[in-house]
Amino acid sequence: MFLNKSCQVAALLLCFWALNTGYPHKYFAEKVTALLGEDAVLPCSFEFPKGVPVPYIIQWHKKGIKIPIYIWYAGYPPHIGEGYDGRVSLTGQASLNLTDLQEHDQGTYTCIVNFFDRSPDQKRNGSLVHLFVHAPPHFSIKPPDVVYVNIGEKLALFCAAGGTPDPDITWYMDNIPLNEGSNIKINRGSLEIFKVRESHIGDYVCRARNSEGSIVANTKVIVAGPAVITVPPRNLTKLEGDKAELICEAKALPANLTHRWLFNDKDISQLTWLVTRTVVRTDGTLFINPTSAEDSGLYTCEVFNGIGTPERASAYLSVEYPARVTYSPTIQYLPLGLSGIIRCYVKANPPFLHIKWSKDNRPFDPKSHHGVFSLSNGSLQIQRVIHEHQGWYVCTPYNAYGTTGKSNKMEVLVRDPPIFTIKPEERYQQRVNSKVTMPCHGTGQPKPDIHWRRTDGKQLSRDRAIQSNGNLTIRTLKKEDHGRYECVLQNDIAILVTSTLLIVEGTTPHAPTNVTVETSAFSASLSWLPAYDGNYPQSYVIWYRLLEQAESPWRTIRVDPDEASTFTIYNLQPNSEYEFRVLSRNTLGDGMFSPTVRGKTTPWDFLGGVYPTDAYGATYIPTVQKPSGPKPSPPRNVTVQETENGLLISWLPPLNQKVPVAFYYVEYRTQSKPWKRWGPIKHATSYLAKELAPGHYNFRVYAYSIMSVGQASSEVSLTLAAESYEVTKSRAITAGVVGGILFFIAAIVLSVCAVKICNKRKRRKAEKAYMMVTCPVAEARNGGHSHGGSPSPIKNIGPSPRPKSGVPGLVSKSSLYHCGLSLWTNL
Predict the structure, then answer these.
(1) Which residues pair with residue 303 across a beta bridge?
(2) How far is CA 600 from CA 16, 470, 569, 572, 805, in A?
(3) CA-CA distance, 708 to 573, in Å (whole number)?
(4) How far apart are CA 272 and CA 788, in angstroms?
(5) 463-497: per-residue pLDDT in tens?
């Protein structure tokens, strides 16, 4: 059928509309499999409507790409999508031929055939094809060939591979597959070992495998180590002018070694006078050619591979040469009447053997001249200079290699030495913040120079010390100005020195000096020399600490009595190093610390039974700051027994008695709670535990020596029942109640008895009084005699004649009887 241009454009637009909207259709996808780089044909067939050929358009789509990768329409060149140029063409009716397959060609393809004269409800032709492009594995990330690790560090090896189908990655170590564990993790091909051990060192293989093949990547894991010098340099002696060779061989993993040589701790590359004559070979050997006398010294080889710290080894190079004179002064002066030196500046290796002297062109033997001596440095010392010592001198040194020659002629002149005209006083004593002036003057030819210095080497204050015309003035005196000063009078003839002591009062005390320490196993005795006290009474405090503990704090102890300059510190650890220093103080405050000294206590003689004693000679148990020394054996036969008073824990001493036991500790706990303990238990092998609550208990016993603790004994278990606890408790309560009741009854009985006794005594007194009053009356009533007046008391006068009845003033027994009877009747 003939179509004009407008119809063709309309058909093309209709095609794109069909692509974007899509008619409802369903295809069963066909599967096509091909290898990477090969060709593949994606099938597509169609049928004309009613079997009559009509114009049509063919489109191939790939899932994920919006624009068709291939469009064909008769009479027009085909449209080919990006990336498919030269690789796609039609074959057969509508099938697509895809050549040189790439991995990204894999996917789902749709073939659509559209007819221009069909109505919308007609079935659309085409196909759905899934293309599988199989490719052997290939690595996108490979682990390195060699990996250096340190034991205990983390190791990570990364491995990733691509391919179709997706390859599986497996790790092997020494041909054994690796599996994940607590210390090994494998995630997406990456291998992680969190803590490397010796067993992890070896050959690792990352294997990527799929149906099309497999590939491997090998990695060797090696323990990294710092550089180690295997052949160190050795001391060497060479004759001047010869070449010297200092060997320094090393090995390391990794083996990227760097060598550096130092001369007396200075890099040789920075010493221009030496570097031009040296060469360092690749194996680290140092060549010096030629050698010079100045080359003698310490040579250090330093090797490093980036791991750890550089390794060092040193050797001494000795360059020998004949003895030589290095300097010949034209004129030398000797002080008349004083000691003087004629110098000969000599250098020799080996040292010079002797020096020949000449004076005024004649041999001069020091031994034959009184008061002249040869010094070890080759110079001549004259004990007392006289005018005859003046002249021209020449020295010639010799050693085992001979001499390089004699010195130049040196003129020695004898002159009067300088003298002090004014000397400072022996001592100056001033208050702090005051001013002092110390004079010093001298004269001589040539005119001498005068300057001051401190004997301790410290510098004079720049702001407060002024030297003028030989005088030294120090303003605003401070504590640090205290000390000895020297006035130096110097010219070419001689150097004279005089000294004075400056005492600055009203300050804190100065630091003690000459501190010494003597130690035993458990104590240290210190002694020192007191320094100036600032004109106030001073006392001392000793500071000490244990060195072997990290950041160990300082401990202090005051010295008693205050004026003492020796003191002993007890309760120290045996076989341990300590630091000591002494601090002085007075009423103005603390002074300065003495220099710190160190002392190490001796080992403890535990076999000899030596125990520490304090200043009073009493034995004590020192505080164990660090367990050390031999440990006692564990206690034996631990038993626990219930008694009326509590639980009795008993044990036997350790079987091995070589380490003496100082004390014991008993530990107990219930279930999973932490251990608690009783102690220390001295001179006993049992302990009575009271007031324990019901429960299941575990017990164990530890033996302690003076300086250590042994292993625990075997544990003993005991269940303390609630019944026994309640019985014990009830017994105690019952005993208390019964005791209280008995005490109460006893108190009542005693009270009743006391009341009865008191009442009885009162009644007896009353009866007696009553009888004395009423009995005569009753007797009169009964026909007896009546007595007038008051009754007389009955008195026992002693034995008397039996009274006669009717005698006035006497009472008969019958009267008393009748009186008592009548009294009872009345009552």
Answers:
(1) 259, 311
(2) 99, 50, 13, 10, 117
(3) 11
(4) 158
(5) 999 999 999 999 999 999 999 999 999 999 999 99
